[in-house]
Design goal:
It is an enzyme of class 2 (transferase). It catalyses: pseudouridine(1915) in 23S rRNA + S-adenosyl-L-methionine = N(3)-methylpseudouridine(1915) in 23S rRNA + S-adenosyl-L-homocysteine + H(+). S-adenosyl-L-methionine binds at residues 73, 105, 124-129. It is found in: Cytoplasm. This protein is α/β, with parallel strands linked by helices and 157 residues long. The protein has a single domain (2-38, 60-156), classed as SPOUT methyltransferase, trefoil knot domain (Alpha/beta knot). Helices cover 42% and strands 22% of the residues. The chain has 5 helices and 5 strands, in the order E-H-E-H-E-H-E-H-E-H. A 5-stranded parallel beta sheet has the order 2-1-4-3-5. Helix 1 links the parallel strand 1 and strand 2. It is globular, with a radius of gyration of 15 Å. The two termini are 28 Å apart. 25% of the residues are buried.
């Protein structure tokens, strides 16, 4: 199985990008992992929030294969602790799917079409974080999940 993280817009903080790169490299020891950035929309000044979500949604949906299982990261999604998240990952790996795709939307969230296509919604916290920070948190939680599944000590450090 491949795990893919899709996100809108590049990370412009070099320290944050360095941490993302570190966890991405670590994660590669456990699972095939891809991190794909969808470029920020240009000329959004004249777009409403709904129009921006619609355009971003089209870009997100255009990156999916018909067999992908897509999970959106959403403030109203299901919250899991790290152990339950590791079990969530294991369940998906056991199901035989080819690709599990986690999606971090733009600043206004997702279009109705993305929600409709989603196979689930997860929330990393009730708090609001920047979209750039969520990338790091998600990749770290994926890494943590695999270390839990392998009974490695990282989770308890």
């Amino acid at each position: 199985m491949t795990i893919k993280l899709l996100a809108i817009g590049k990370t412009d903080h070099t320290d944050l990008q360095s941490l993302i790169d570190d966890y991405q490299k670590r994660l590669g020891f456990y699972v095939k992992f891809e991190f794909e950035i969808i470029p920020d929309l240009k000329k959004t000044k004249n777009l409403s929030e709904d129009q921006q979500k619609q355009k971003e949604g089209e870009l997100i949906l255009g990156k999916l294969n018909s067999t992908d299982v897509m999970i959106v990261l959403d403030e109203n999604g299901k919250q899991l602790d790290s152990v339950n998240f590791s079990q969530y990952l294991q369940k998906h790996m056991n199901s035989g799917i080819k690709q599990l795709v986690f999606v971090i939307g733009g600043p206004y969230g997702f279009s109705p079409e993305v929600y409709q296509k989603a196979n689930g919604k997860l929330s990393l916290s009730k708090m609001t974080f920047s979209h750039q920070m969520i990338r790091l948190f998600m990749i770290e939680q994926l890494y943590r999940g695999f270390t839990i599944l392998k009974n490695e000590p990282y989770h308890h450090r």
